[in-house]
Design brief:
Nucleotidyltransferase, domain 5; five-stranded mixed β-sheet; 10 strands; 2 domains; single chain; alpha/beta
Length: 328
């Protein structure tokens, strides 16, 4: 089965072709335009998708040596995401569907992230737990089979990736700030970090996350210090903040594993690129934790195509229906 994947839910434009689960081409355009604004501007994102999507499609057909007529299925992200950004990808997909009479299916962006790990680990067996951590989402899903998911815990406010970006902005880093904070934290050489930030507890569901309070705690801490202190202690501040996020994620995931009895773990989403997070989770789950490669952690169309292939094999495709606020 050859699947053309289309992803445009936020600030990455991506087109990919997979054949029987193997990537033939996967192009991604990351919109650097947003760095000057400190976050994604929806209108700018939509315009950038419009400018790039046709060229990216031409590139993947050229790289794969295939033509649109040779596709068996078109898969497009239709939820969740920015409305204008989703509309660009869906409209492009529908155009190809109409012109070449290729079957089409809508795919949930979070489902794509969950199955991104299977592109390089096809032997991962069900059931497993998926920790989805990105700029827009932080949640733990129990994955029993294709299309059967249970949300065990999720953020009640900010996503972990959003907290990285907002704290990074406070510290003077450009958007997106995750890599900058990780790099700065690696410069910390102390053995004991005297800067302590809180880990929020959600009593209604102990597996839920909250990062808004952490973000506020960093803000108040920085406001109480002068610029010289912040400059001289920025590695320690970044280390403490990053460690607090990681411990929050780790503790909930361990609890979810104990509650479900499932030891197989997939860490996916943009924040899954963080090497310290990977190291900490490896300590807990050893050889039973799986990560996508760095490229496949970001928003990409190959994961959308694979999710579509898996659904098609089960006969559970659906016509695209744009729903920006949908969850999995």
């Amino acid at each position: 089965m050859r699947v053309l994947g289309i992803e445009s839910s936020c600030d990455e434009t991506s087109i990919a072709i997979i054949e029987d689960g193997k990537i033939l081409a996967n192009t991604i355009y990351s919109q650097l335009e947003h760095s000057q604004y400190g976050g994604v501007v929806p209108e700018i994102a939509s315009r950038a998708h419009l400018e790039k999507i046709d060229r990216l499609a031409s590139t993947v057909f050229q790289e794969s040596g295939l033509s649109p007529q040779q596709m068996d299925l078109i898969a497009v992200t239709d939820s969740p995401g920015l409305a204008g950004a989703l509309l660009v990808g869906i409209s492009f997909a529908l155009g190809l569907h109409t012109r070449y009479r290729i079957p089409i299916t809508g795919i949930n962006h979070l489902e794509g992230h969950i199955f991104s790990v299977l592109l390089e680990n096809p032997g991962l067996q069900f059931p497993f737990l998926a920790l989805v951590v990105s700029g827009g989402h932080t949640a733990i899903y129990r994955v029993d089979e294709i299309g059967v998911y249970q949300c065990m815990g999720q953020t009640v406010d900010d996503a972990a990736g959003e907290a990285f970006d907002k704290v990074g902005k406070m510290l003077g880093f450009c958007y997106p700030a995750g890599k900058s904070i990780e790099k700065e934290a690696s410069l910390y050489t102390g053995t004991n970090n005297s800067i302590n930030f809180p880990i929020a507890r959600i009593w209604a569901n102990p597996l839920d996350f909250s990062f808004s309070g952490l973000k506020t705690a960093v803000k108040y801490f920085l406001s109480s210090k002068d610029s010289d202190f912040i400059k001289n202690n920025r590695p320690a501040i970044c280390e403490s903040f990053q460690n607090t996020v990681i411990q929050s994620l780790r503790s909930r995931l361990v609890a979810a594993s104990q509650k479900s009895g499932i030891r197989r773990i997939a860490l996916v989403g943009g924040v899954a690129c963080n090497s310290r997070l990977r190291e900490e989770l490896k300590k807990c789950f050893c050889n039973e934790i799986y990560f996508p490669s760095t490229l496949l952690c970001t928003d990409n169309a190959a994961m959308i195509a694979l999710a579509a292939q898996k659904r098609a094999e089960k006969g559970i495709t659906r016509f695209p229906q744009m729903n920006p606020s949908a969850s999995l």
